[in-house]
Design brief:
By secondary structure, the protein is mainly alpha-helical. The chain contains 22 helices and no strands. One of its GO terms (biological process) is regulation of DNA-templated transcription.
């Protein structure tokens, strides 16, 4: 491994050690699901404490799952709505709606729509609230959620009642009652009976109103639902008072006042006290009527004081909520920053690991490739050396064979040349003897001898073995005759023979003997050859022929 790779590995190890000491936040907090269930139950009894604990819960726990985040946001919206912080509640409900859509939780989304409908009724308009409740009903119908359908229909009926459309209000409320009765769960049934009774009371159908109020009362008694009892009993008193049975209504109003006092609900107590005064006035007992109205006035003052105190407490709590939200936002910012730093460092470590591994792998591949290249080069060098050695051996063998052939051909050429020389010498000897004989023979033989001498003279310069000599010469001196003819195609056979003998480095005496001519004739033949080869004056003929 190279020095660079070793340094890279050491650096990555240091980064890993640094990553081990990065604060991961409160990873080991409580189970978020259990905490949310407990806060939901606490909301029903102590909303203020529930909100405080929810703020602490969101600040201390690790990142929530999508479902837990949606539930926590929805619960926070309900609490803010309970405190009268409608703008903040609207924001949370919208966020919960977005999260539930991401979860594709239809029932959860329908529940959010109903809460938004209640909020719109207080902050916007009946039509927008009605639209949200109908959207919730549609989702519950898709899920075949009977309880959800009943609640949505009850809320829709209430919206129609408040808008004055009593026909539609009765239709939806009665549908809700049928659904509840069919489900076997009568938890919300008393509220629906109360709603139908109120509609009939607004329509001045007091008999029907009294019947539904009585059904609600019986159901509240059976279920021990004391919270709904004061309003329920007060409604029973109203139906009697409005049907000229003021005397019967007194006991209902008094019972409603008693239960309201037990519950500490000044609003219900004041309402029952006002209605009790109206009953006494209907009976003509104006003194008691005035007495009840005075009590109602004191209750109103108490309610006003409590409302002022509640509003002040709400403002203080609103300020506390803002501080909590800022703290949560700060903690979330820290958590997001830590998370980003952690992810960035992890990505950096992974990148460095990848780079280190890449460098190491690349170095290994480079070394492996270098070794492979060297091995191949060594093999190629070895093969080349073998080829060169083989080629040298072949060249040596070829040179030896060619040298042997050239030697043999030179011997043959020399033998032929010697043969020609000997033949010419014999012919010269015969010629000399014939000359002597001519001088001695009679005149009748002289003519024949002269003819014989002429024939010998004519054939003395001819070589019967020329073709054989030429063939052997070309084997030894390749392309010489071809190059010579290219220089001057008009050369005679005698010129060619002279050039060949000079190429063989024969002496002038040997050339003259071979050609069968005198030294003077040889000199003339040399001069004639120079002329035909067009050699300049001073240029050596022997050297020229050796260069061909």
């Amino acid at each position: 491994m190279s020095e660079v790779s070793c340094k890279m590995v050491r650096f990555v190890k240091v980064c890993c050690l640094i990553a081990c000491f990065i604060p991961l936040g409160s990873v080991f907090g409580q189970n978020p699901a259990d905490g949310l269930d407990r806060l939901q139950r606490l909301f029903e009894t102590n909303p203020r404490k529930a909100y405080q604990e929810l703020s602490d819960f969101l600040g201390q726990n690790p990142p929530l799952s999508l479902a837990e985040q949606a539930e926590a946001t929805f619960l926070e919206g309900q609490l803010l709505m309970e405190f009268g912080l409608y703008n903040e509640a609207t924001t949370k409900f919208y966020e919960a709606e977005r999260l539930f859509k991401m979860m594709a939780c239809t029932a959860c989304l329908a529940n959010v729509y109903n809460q938004i409908g209640k909020l719109y009724y207080k902050t916007k308009s009946l039509s927008e609230a009605l639209q949200r409740h109908k959207a919730a009903l549609h989702l519950y119908e898709e899920e075949q959620d009977i309880q959800g359908m009943a609640r949505s229909k009850g809320l829709i009926g209430s919206m129609y009642e408040k808008s004055g459309d009593y026909t539609q209000a009765l239709i939806y409320q009665n549908d809700a009652i049928k659904l509840i009765r069919g489900s076997g769960d009568s938890t919300d049934l008393s509220t629906l009976f109360e709603n139908v009774g109120s509609i009939y009371e607004d329509l001045e159908k007091y008999d029907s109103a009294e019947r539904y109020f009585q059904l609600a009362y019986a159901l509240n008694i059976a279920m021990g639902n004391k919270l709904n009892m004061p309003g329920n009993i007060n409604n029973l008193g109203d139906t009697r008072r409005k049907t000229n049975r003021a005397g019967e209504s007194l006991s209902y109003y008094e019972e409603a006042i008693r239960i309201s006092q037990e519950l500490g609900n000044n609003y219900l107590e004041r309402s029952a006290t006002v209605d009790l005064g109206k009953a006494y006035a209907a009976l003509g007992d104006f003194e008691k009527a005035y007495e009840q109205l005075a009590k109602a006035r004191k209750l109103s003052e108490t309610i006003f004081s409590e409302e002022a105190a509640r509003q002040l407490a709400t403002q203080e709590f609103h300020y506390e909520i803002k501080e909590k939200q800022q703290k949560i936002a700060h903690l979330e910012g820290i958590h997001v920053f830590e998370t980003r730093i952690r992810w960035l460092l992890m990505m950096l470590i992974l990148t460095l690991l990848g780079l280190g591994w890449g460098l190491i792998s690349r170095q290994r591949l480079k070394i492996r490739a270098t070794k492979s290249t060297l091995r191949k080069q060594e093999e190629l060098l070895e093969i080349n050396e073998r080829l060169i050695q083989t080629e040298k051996e072949n060249i040596n063998l070829l040179e030896a064979r060619m040298a042997a052939e050239v030697g043999a051909q030179q011997k043959a050429l020399s033998a032929q040349t010697l043969h020609v020389i000997e033949k010419n010498e014999i012919l010269k000897e015969i010629q000399s003897k014939l000359k002597v004989a001519l001088e001695q023979d009679p005149k009748d033989q002289r003519k024949k001898l002269r003819n014989l001498m002429k024939q010998i003279d004519a054939n003395l310069g001819q070589d019967s073995d020329w073709e054989s000599f030429k063939h052997t010469f070309e084997n030894v001196h390749q392309d010489f005759l071809k190059n010579l003819n290219c220089r001057n195609p008009a050369l005679t056979t005698g010129d060619v023979k002279l050039a060949c003998l000079m190429k063989m480095n024969l002496s002038s005496r040997e050339i003259a003997a071979t050609l069968g001519i005198s030294m003077e004739s040889l000199r003339i033949s040399r001069y004639r050859l120079r002329k035909r080869l067009q050699l300049s004056e001073g240029r050596d003929l022997q050297h020229y022929l050796h260069c061909l």
